[in-house]
Design a protein that fits this description.
Blueprint: E1 25-26, H1 27-32, H2 35-60, H3 64-103, E2 110-112, E3 117-119, H4 121-126
Antiparallel strand pairs: 1-2, 2-3
Helix pairs in contact: 2-3
The structure holds zinc ion.
């Protein structure tokens, strides 16, 4: 006989008790965000694209490649900004959901992006 400790939360996906979505994430992962790392990665990739355009423009004597590299670099940078903004927005939603759950007396352990609510699935199993 098990006492329910750890049931449903050991490494595998945890189902949302509110909407049934199987892809909840831990509150720590949902709220911390990794915007700085992604911003740095995206900036480096954009700079490399711009540098590659310049390098091959010089090497092959195709001056228009410099402009192509610059356009690709700008697009990559704009994409990076969009990704970082989206992650920050998701983290804000998760923190709000955790705050709502705390106000309702639940010490939330998981956040569900599908319904935008935080919950403690282990408590739901015992309810
Ligand atoms: Zn849900």
């Amino acid at each position: 006989m098990t006492n329910g400790v750890g049931s449903g939360t050991a490494n595998g996906p945890v189902e949302c008790p509110r909407c049934g979505a199987a892809d909840t994430v831990t509150v720590a992962n949902a709220t911390e965000g990794s915007g700085c790392a992604h911003f740095a990665e995206g900036t480096v990739i954009a700079l490399m694209a711009g540098a590659a355009g310049k390098y091959y423009a010089d090497e092959r004597n195709w001056p228009w490649l410099t402009a192509v590299g610059a356009v690709v670099a700008v697009l990559l940078f704009l994409g990076t900004i969009a990704v970082v903004r989206s992650e920050n927005r998701d983290a804000r939603r998760a923190r709000s959901a955790v705050d709502r759950a705390a106000a309702a007396g639940t010490d939330a352990t998981h956040y569900c992006a599908a319904c935008g609510e935080a919950s403690s699935p282990r408590d739901a199993e015992n309810a």
